[in-house]
């Protein structure tokens, strides 16, 4: 911005300066330096006008006089390091109006001038830049982000595709600020901006919406066989993973992962404010589910969202009454079909569904298949069909606001009697979530659906739920308690007895899970619990094996038949391992 200009002593005749301006100098001004070091400003246009004079006599009047007589003295000077804002303030406050500013070096020697038009143009550019860029992180500001979101959604009218909005909120910025101070909190925010930008395509835009909230807008071009919501979720997962990676420039405790919400539109008429809010709401759902996960906004995150199921199937583990050998229920367990034909546990599928917000859709698929199987068995095995099927609800599913309508519609569509369905609620869901879900669960219970509280004894928090408004018909004692009681541990034996006594008091059935050895079976029987589930009595079975098992159990429990003793089945780590740990049983 600094323009070099000639510097002349204050005693230089005006005629010499006039000649130089007209023949040699092209600068817009000259600087005049007095003997005492003060700086005067001589504007080119005003000086030449003065020398011409009104009637052409200016040069004869001023030619021999020193240039100091026509210079403006006392003008504010600036240095090359002076900011644009400071220079603009000096120009605006000058009593002489918008004049050039003399520029001096670090020794106070004149080097050039800054013109007002350049200062004001630079100030306008800086103001626009600051409005568009977040100063701390260097990413787009909120105003610029919303402007770009509006433009990209409107652009769908001419360029079909989809626009994805990803809303990210750090899970622990406050803790970082409290522990290390705001300077390291700012470093975390800069790290987040850097990592997000590093995994985005050039056309994507990341913005900081305020505090610890960031957002990304991306245009998704149509591709054959690619669902835009799947692509948007993949983008959200890529961003989440980038923040989960270690940043070596930060202390370990100054790191933070993020909760991520994703919203998608293919409609140019979409209200972008509403689109951003739904992404924000999905982010909040991810945060309340524990953070460091991705949620999809809108109704597709619950019922309508499709999940891949081609490689999934159900196996069933019987619940047996040890007094009669009769099968009182079967539990539906989800498995994946491996490439070699074996069955595996779908831990990664469950984790991906939880991150993507499709857990309820997956639970609904399991419920639908289990109910269809129950209807078929009722027709195929009128005297041996299991009275009830247990289907697990993941902790994420019970938070769905339309849970009751979704599950009732699923059961009704299969033709299965509602009282033959028992939904298992894991103690690991948390007492608060179970209490909040009580109104939805009550609707299902009123319709005839039964409920079991799973994993009882893994923690002690759910004991206080017995006898409350939570509609519990059955409790299932966790395998860890059963195993301990079989080893003679007094606490676990007392826990078995305590759960049985509480269940009797509130007229609730009890099932002991994970009974795998004869000592465990004996400990369960001593506690007064008669319904068991585990490898000692049956491993999880494919449908053909289950039908044979049901027929055999029905024959064995017929009047006059001897009660069969359980056969110990060696526990293996094969395809259908028992499911009695949190978040895995379906």
Largest sheet: 8 strands, mixed, barrel
CATH-wise, what's the superfamily of the largest domain? EAL domain
User: How is the CATH topology of the largest domain named?
Assistant: TIM Barrel
Shape: elongated
Averaged pLDDT: 84
List the helices and strands and how they pair.
Blueprint: E1 3-4, E2 7-9, H1 14-23, E3 29-33, E4 39-43, H2 44-52, H3 58-62, E5 72-73, H4 84-93, E6 101-104, E7 110-114, H5 116-132, H6 142-154, E8 162-170, H7 173-180, H8 182-198, E9 205-210, E10 213-220, H9 228-244, E11 258-265, H10 272-288, E12 294-296, E13 312-321, E14 327-337, E15 343-344, H11 347-356, H12 359-380, E16 389-393, H13 403-414, E17 421-426, H14 431-436, H15 438-446, E18 450-456, E19 474-477, H16 479-486, H17 490-505, E20 509-513, H18 518-527, E21 531-533, H19 543-556
Parallel strand pairs: 2-3, 11-12, 14-16, 16-17, 17-18, 18-19, 19-20, 20-21
Antiparallel strand pairs: 1-7, 3-4, 4-5, 6-7, 8-10, 8-11, 9-10, 13-14, 13-21, 14-15
Helix pairs in contact: 1-2, 4-5, 7-8, 12-13, 13-15, 16-17, 16-18
């Amino acid at each position: 911005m600094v323009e070099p200009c000639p510097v002349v002593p204050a005693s230089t005749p005006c005629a010499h300066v006039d000649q130089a301006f007209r023949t040699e100098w092209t600068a817009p001004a000259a600087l005049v330096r007095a003997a005492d070091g003060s700086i005067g400003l001589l504007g080119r246009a005003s000086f030449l006008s003065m020398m011409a004079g009104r009637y052409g006599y200016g040069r004869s009047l001023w030619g021999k006089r020193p240039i100091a007589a026509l210079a403006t003295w006392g003008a504010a000077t600036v240095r090359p390091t002076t900011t644009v804002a400071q220079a603009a303030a000096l120009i605006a406050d000058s009593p002489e109006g918008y004049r050039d500013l003399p520029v001096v070096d670090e020794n106070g020697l004149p080097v050039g001038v800054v013109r007002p038009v350049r200062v004001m143009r630079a100030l306008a550019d800086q103001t626009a830049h600051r409005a568009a860029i977040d100063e701390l992180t260097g990413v787009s500001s909120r105003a610029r982000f919303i402007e770009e979101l509006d433009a990209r959604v409107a652009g769908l009218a001419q360029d079909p595709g989809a626009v994805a909005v990803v809303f990210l909120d750090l899970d622990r910025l406050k803790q970082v600020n409290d522990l290390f101070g705001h300077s390291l909190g700012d470093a975390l925010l800069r790290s987040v901006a850097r990592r997000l930008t590093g995994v985005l395509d050039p056309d994507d835009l990341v913005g900081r919406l305020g505090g610890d909230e960031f957002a990304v807008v991306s245009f998704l071009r149509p591709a054959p066989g690619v669902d835009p919501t799947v692509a948007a979720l993949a983008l959200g997962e890529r961003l989440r993973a980038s923040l989960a990676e270690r940043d070596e420039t930060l202390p370990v405790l100054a790191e933070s992962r993020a909760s991520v919400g994703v919203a998608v539109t293919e409609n140019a008429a979409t209200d972008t404010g509403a689109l951003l809010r739904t992404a924000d709401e999905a982010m909040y759902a991810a945060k309340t589910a524990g953070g460091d996960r991705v949620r999809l906004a809108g109704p597709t995150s619950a019922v309508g969202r499709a999940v891949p199921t081609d490689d999934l199937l159900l196996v069933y583990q019987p619940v047996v009454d040890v007094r009669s050998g009769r099968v009182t229920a079967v539990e539906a367990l989800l498995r994946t079909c491996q490439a070699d034909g074996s069955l595996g546990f779908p831990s990664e599928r469950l984790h991906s569904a939880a991150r993507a917000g499709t857990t309820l859709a997956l639970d609904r698929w399991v419920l639908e298949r289990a109910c269809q199987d129950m209807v078929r068995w009722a027709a195929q095995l009128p005297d041996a069909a299991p009275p009830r099927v247990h289907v697990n609800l993941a902790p994420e599913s019970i938070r769905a606001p339309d849970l009751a309508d979704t599950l009732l519609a699923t059961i009704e569509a299969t033709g299965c009697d509602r009282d033959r369905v028992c939904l298992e609620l894991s103690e690991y869901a948390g007492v608060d979530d179970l209490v909040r879900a009580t109104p939805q669960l009550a609707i299902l219970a009123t319709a005839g659906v039964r409920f079991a509280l799973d994993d009882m004894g893994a923690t002690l928090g759910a004991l206080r739920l017995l006898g409350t408004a939570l509609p519990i018909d059955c409790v299932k004692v966790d395998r860890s308690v059963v195993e301990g009681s079989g080893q003679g541990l007094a606490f676990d034996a007392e826990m078995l007895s305590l759960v049985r006594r509480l269940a009797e008091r509130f007229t609730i059935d009890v099932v002991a899970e994970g009974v795998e050895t004869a000592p465990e079976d004996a400990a369960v029987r001593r506690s007064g619990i008669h319904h068991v589930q585990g490898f000692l009595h049956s491993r999880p079975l494919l449908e053909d094996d289950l039908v044979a098992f049901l027929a055999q159990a029905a024959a064995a429990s017929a009047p006059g038949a001897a009660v069969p003793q359980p056969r110990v089945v060696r526990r293996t780590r094969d395809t259908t391992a028992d499911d009695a740990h949190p978040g895995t049983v379906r």
